[in-house]
Here is the input.
Amino acid sequence: MAENILIDNRLTKEEQYKQILPQIKALIEFESDRVANLANIAAVLKEAFKYPWVGFYILKGDELVLGPFQGQAACTRLTPGKGVCGTSFSTAATVIVPDVDQFPGHIACSSASRSEIVVPIIKEGKVVAVIDLDSNHLNDFSTVDQEFLEQLSILISARW
Ligand code: SME
Here is the structure.
């Protein structure tokens, strides 16, 4: 059965986050399978915001390994401390990159990517994964994305 998620693309970005976050919470609340939950979250974010790439990198050993995502095939393994994801991981902080060409060490999984936001998922004080969104437009992410994606990160952390 398809999950019945209400997404209204006519709303502002902030309104859309407010519309989808409670639905994501309900979607993952009673499901313990991490891959299933992250896959559904990537699908909802993709449908809501139409970004070319949304997904997760998960800490496995000493690398960040590609998790559930929506978009083109991407780099499989990232190194903590390197690139946008690795920087967010190592600093345990959200990183907003208005222009990826200006970010030293940005790892280009797609040449069309122009801006990016990465939000850490923190469990018991340790970063266990990151949420990564890529846009084909410059300066496409703001503190609105940061605020709501950090709320999403807390929801995910609660089910980790
Ligand atoms: N640009 C990221 C790599 C992951 S892809 O964008 C999906 C980075 O610099 O870490």
The chain has a mean pLDDT of 95.
